[in-house]
Amino acid sequence: MEDEEKVELDYLKGFNEGYTISQHQPELAEKLANIDSDFIRLVGFKDGRKQYQTEQLKERLPSWLKSERPAREQNPPTKTRGRDIEPEK
Questions:
Q1: Does the structure show a pLDDT above 90 at 17?
Q2: What confidence score (pLDDT) does residue 57 get?
Q3: Per-residue pLDDT for 88 more than 80?
Q4: What is the sign of the dihedral through the CA atoms of 59, 20, 23 and 57?
Q5: Compositional bias (Basic and acidic residues) spans (predicted)?
Protein backbone atom coordinates (compact mmCIF):
# COMPACT_ATOMS: atom_id res chain seq x y z
CA MET A 1 0.00 0.00 0.00
CA GLU A 2 2.81 2.38 0.86
CA ASP A 3 4.54 1.78 -2.47
CA GLU A 4 1.37 2.72 -4.38
CA GLU A 5 1.21 6.14 -2.72
CA LYS A 6 4.83 7.05 -3.41
CA VAL A 7 5.71 8.85 -6.61
CA GLU A 8 9.12 8.24 -8.08
CA LEU A 9 11.43 11.17 -7.49
CA ASP A 10 12.46 11.37 -11.16
CA TYR A 11 8.82 11.42 -12.28
CA LEU A 12 8.03 14.20 -9.81
CA LYS A 13 11.01 16.26 -10.94
CA GLY A 14 10.00 15.81 -14.57
CA PHE A 15 6.39 16.74 -13.82
CA ASN A 16 7.42 19.95 -12.06
CA GLU A 17 9.86 20.83 -14.83
CA GLY A 18 7.23 20.21 -17.50
CA TYR A 19 4.73 22.41 -15.70
CA THR A 20 7.21 25.22 -15.05
CA ILE A 21 8.79 25.23 -18.51
CA SER A 22 5.33 25.21 -20.09
CA GLN A 23 4.52 28.36 -18.13
CA HIS A 24 7.61 30.30 -19.11
CA GLN A 25 8.84 28.77 -22.39
CA PRO A 26 5.99 26.90 -24.10
CA GLU A 27 7.91 26.46 -27.36
CA LEU A 28 10.77 24.70 -25.58
CA ALA A 29 8.32 22.55 -23.63
CA GLU A 30 6.66 21.47 -26.87
CA LYS A 31 10.01 20.48 -28.40
CA LEU A 32 10.99 18.50 -25.31
CA ALA A 33 7.59 16.79 -25.14
CA ASN A 34 8.03 15.58 -28.72
CA ILE A 35 11.05 13.48 -27.76
CA ASP A 36 10.19 9.80 -28.14
CA SER A 37 11.47 8.06 -25.04
CA ASP A 38 10.19 6.02 -22.10
CA PHE A 39 12.39 7.61 -19.42
CA ILE A 40 10.32 8.17 -16.30
CA ARG A 41 11.46 11.77 -15.99
CA LEU A 42 10.33 12.53 -19.54
CA VAL A 43 6.98 10.84 -18.87
CA GLY A 44 6.60 13.13 -15.85
CA PHE A 45 7.61 16.11 -17.98
CA LYS A 46 4.90 15.34 -20.52
CA ASP A 47 2.30 14.89 -17.79
CA GLY A 48 3.28 18.19 -16.16
CA ARG A 49 3.01 19.97 -19.51
CA LYS A 50 -0.39 18.40 -20.12
CA GLN A 51 -1.57 19.48 -16.65
CA TYR A 52 -0.55 23.08 -17.30
CA GLN A 53 -2.29 23.10 -20.68
CA THR A 54 -5.47 21.67 -19.13
CA GLU A 55 -5.50 24.38 -16.47
CA GLN A 56 -4.95 27.11 -19.05
CA LEU A 57 -7.78 25.81 -21.20
CA LYS A 58 -10.11 25.72 -18.21
CA GLU A 59 -9.28 29.36 -17.37
CA ARG A 60 -10.24 30.49 -20.89
CA LEU A 61 -13.63 28.78 -20.90
CA PRO A 62 -16.75 30.81 -20.18
CA SER A 63 -18.20 30.26 -16.73
CA TRP A 64 -21.08 28.17 -18.04
CA LEU A 65 -18.63 25.63 -19.43
CA LYS A 66 -16.48 25.40 -16.33
CA SER A 67 -17.21 22.82 -13.68
CA GLU A 68 -18.37 25.56 -11.35
CA ARG A 69 -21.98 26.59 -11.66
CA PRO A 70 -22.76 30.29 -12.11
CA ALA A 71 -24.21 32.14 -9.12
CA ARG A 72 -27.60 32.63 -10.73
CA GLU A 73 -28.08 28.89 -11.10
CA GLN A 74 -27.13 28.26 -7.49
CA ASN A 75 -29.86 30.62 -6.30
CA PRO A 76 -32.84 30.12 -8.61
CA PRO A 77 -35.39 32.94 -8.64
CA THR A 78 -38.39 32.40 -6.42
CA LYS A 79 -41.76 31.89 -8.06
CA THR A 80 -44.33 34.57 -7.48
CA ARG A 81 -47.68 33.35 -6.27
CA GLY A 82 -51.05 34.63 -7.30
CA ARG A 83 -50.19 35.26 -10.92
CA ASP A 84 -52.72 34.14 -13.45
CA ILE A 85 -51.64 32.43 -16.61
CA GLU A 86 -54.73 33.53 -18.51
CA PRO A 87 -55.00 37.21 -19.50
CA GLU A 88 -57.83 39.18 -17.90
CA LYS A 89 -60.97 39.61 -20.05
A1: yes
A2: 85
A3: no
A4: negative
A5: 54-72
Q: What is the mean pLDDT of residues 53-60?
A: 86
**Burial letters for 29-42: b for 16+ Cβ neighbours within 10 Å, e otherwise?**
beebbeeeeeeebb
Alpha helices in 1-89 (DSSP H): 2-5, 9-24, 26-33, 40-60, 71-74
- Write the DSSP symbol of residue 25: -
* DSSP conformation class of 65: T
Mean pLDDT of 74-87: 61
Whether pLDDT at 73 is above 70: no
Please, which residues have CB within 8 angstroms of residue 14's CB and are 6 or more apart in sequence? 40, 41, 42, 43, 44, 45, 46, 47, 48
Domain range list for the chain: 2-64
State the sign of the Cα–Cα–Cα–Cα dihedral 27, 30, 34, 38: positive
